[in-house]
Structures are given as structure tokens and as C-alpha cells.
Amino acid sequence: GSGDGQGQILQRFPEKDWEDNPFPQGIELFCQPSGWQLFTERNPPTFFVAVLTDINSERHYCACFTFWEAVESTQLQSHPRNGEGDEEEGEEEPSSPVQPAQLFAPKSLVLVSRLDHTEVFRNSLGLIYTIYVDGLNVSLENVIGNLLTCTIPITGGAQ
């Protein structure tokens, strides 16, 4: 009714925690600090980076790219009016002149790193978002796998 809700992790990479870098608990709360709310219009995508500090005082840079997707309205079912029961066959209920508003829900892509590289985070999440919204024939799992497995040369070493 109010449009407020809770965030939910739909997918994560890697699927299991790394021993030296566990998945931040409660990150879905961090993605929408004002709460998960539905909107009647599509907002432009947003990006921000926040620093989370764990119990060992280690920093985790959390880049959050949020965009809005249309959701199905759950209020489209017809309900009996004024306590009336089933209508007789052949009678049709007049259609409502007011159509329910289209609602949009936030969806966030989050990148967590121990390194502080804001532009790399923005570009990587922007690429994933573009592939997702353009419906390209590339699975997000492959894109993310390719981003995570790129080899970075040692400073001063051979390219």
C-alpha cells in the first residue's frame, strides 16, 4: 500500500564467500539508505561509492549503480464492491475510468572492492547496466566473469 519494501539480493558473484573477503551482510540496506520505495515515474540512474569498514578496520569500497524498472501492479484484480457477491451471468461490471499508475522499483548493481578506483567501478557497472537494458545476447555471468578474471600487469613489468 505505501510502496515501501525491503531489498533482496537476487544474484551475487562469487556465489560463496572468499575466505579473505566475506560478503558484506546487510548490503541491500546500504543500496537504498532511504528505504526501498516504488515510484510513479522512472528516475534516472544514480551512482555512488561508500566506504564500509569491517571489524578489523579494513575498508571495503562499495560502488552502487541504481536504476528503476517497471513492476507489475498487484492491485489490478477486481474486488466485489459494497459487499456484493458474484454477479449474475450476462451482467458486466463497468470498466473503471481511472487506470492504475505504472510503478517503478529500484534495482541496484553493487561492486565491492578493497581498492579505491571510483572511475573503474562506474565504468564497469555502467557496462553491465548497458548490456542488461539493451538485451544483448551476452549473459551477465560471462561479462562479470570476464571483468573479474582480467590480468593486470605488474608495474614496470612487460605488457
Automatic annotation (TrEMBL):
It holds the Pfam family uDENN. GO terms for molecular function: guanyl-nucleotide exchange factor activity. GO terms for cellular component: cytoplasmic vesicle. Residues 76-99 are annotated as: Disordered. GO terms for biological process: regulation of Rab protein signal transduction. Gene3D superfamilies: 3.30.450.200. SMART domains: uDENN. This is MTMR5 protein. It comes from Nycticryphes semicollaris.
